Amino acid sequence: MVAADNLQKMPETATFNLAAYLKDRQKLCEAALDKSMPVVYPEKIYESMRYSLLAGGKRVRPILCLATCEMMGGTIEIAMPTACAVEMIHTMSLIHDDLPAMDNDDYRRGRLTNHKVYGDDIAILAGDGLLAFAFELVATQTPESVPKDRVLQVVARLGRALGAAGLVGGQVVDLESEGKSDISLETLNFIHNHKTAALLEACVVCGGILTGASPEDIQRLTRYSQNIGLAFQIIDDILDITATQEQLGKTAGKDLLAKKVTYPSLWGIEESRSKAQQLIEAACAELEPFGKLAQPLQALAHFIVNRSN
Ligand code: GRG
């Protein structure tokens, strides 16, 4: 969920109220996620998947997917299965990231991590189950009005964003970089372009694909999302230093403790913030041709740099 202090900082214009927009879209996403996954036999695995999936979270990824689809002339209805899928994929990556074999974290989204409650074995399977279900959902629940070749493109785009060319690749380089103090900016960018930005890019681009967006528009959406993706991670690194565990819902200060190379460790906090802001300006500039229709995506970009969790 979006913390109240996040929303207070959000720019509110006469024509677009981001706080109200986020509240409304979060409610829709929560309801769709809840409905998508009932508990059946064997109950334990469904409960474990639902434990993490319905634990709150800002829902930035599904909202980006819905907002892009609407900007490009589509509806919430056609994008909702893909929006739920990206949140399931994101949640599974958090469950696996928190495992003792990876980041070894005890808290996430304000509660104990999945493996702390269900054990490592079930947590691994909950991640696997969410990942598989995400693809099933897109393939079977996207409305018939969406041509099948677009659904196939979404499946392919998501698969690429997650595998060794995306999240998995970024995570591998991140693990390899642990304990090394001589990580270059190039390597740091590789890690975060893959670990964080690739899924955010897929959320936005898939929202466009579902509407049959032109290759030029897909290019614009790609540049917008790559910029917000890197800015998202820069802010994540800053928050690890400046925010409390209560605000983050997970252990704070882990990067400093692990002596991890991060954007603030390379540039300092102020410079990092200013670089994130520049990325957001560049992202918003990509959307100028869409005029007022781009307001939600532009406001979401600003939300990403102004958030406090
Ligand atoms: C995808 C097959 C597959 C495996 C996962 C573990 C792993 C491989 C990758 C790690 C990916 C990871 C955890 C990246 C960090 C991304 C990030 C900045 C997360 C925080 O996102 P928020 O702030 O969190 O949107 P909420 O809780 O609000 O959703």
Descriptive report:
By secondary structure, the chain is mainly alpha-helical. It has one domain (21-306): Orthogonal Bundle (Farnesyl Diphosphate Synthase), CATH 1.10.600. It has 16 helices and 2 strands. Strands 1-2 form a two-stranded antiparallel ribbon. Bound molecules: geranylgeranyl diphosphate. Residues 57-58, 60, 90, 93-94, 96-97, 102, 109, 131, 162, 167-168, 171, 195-196, 233, 236 line the site of geranylgeranyl diphosphate.
Count the domains.
Answer: 1
Q: Secondary-structure element order, as H and E? A: HHHHHEEHHHHHHHHHHH
- Nearest-integer average pLDDT: 94
Query: In total, how many beta strands?
Result: 2
Largest sheet: 2 strands, antiparallel
Name the shape in a single word. Answer: globular
Backbone structural class = mainly alpha
What portion of residues belong to β-strands?
Answer: under 5%
CATH evolutionary superfamily? Farnesyl Diphosphate Synthase
The CATH class, by name, is Mainly Alpha
The name of the CATH architecture is: Orthogonal Bundle
Keywords:
disordered N terminus, 2 strands, binds geranylgeranyl diphosphate, two-stranded antiparallel sheet, 71% helix, mainly alpha, 309 residues, 1% strand, Farnesyl Diphosphate Synthase
Topology summary:
Elements: H1 4-8, H2 18-36, H3 43-53, H4 60-71, H5 76-98, E1 107-108, E2 111-112, H6 114-118, H7 120-141, H8 148-162, H9 167-177, H10 185-209, H11 215-242, H12 245-248, H13 254-257, H14 263-267, H15 269-286, H16 295-306
Antiparallel strand pairs: 1-2
Residues 57-58, 60, 90, 93-94, 96-97, 102, 109, 131, 162, 167-168, 171, 195-196, 233, 236 line the site of geranylgeranyl diphosphate.
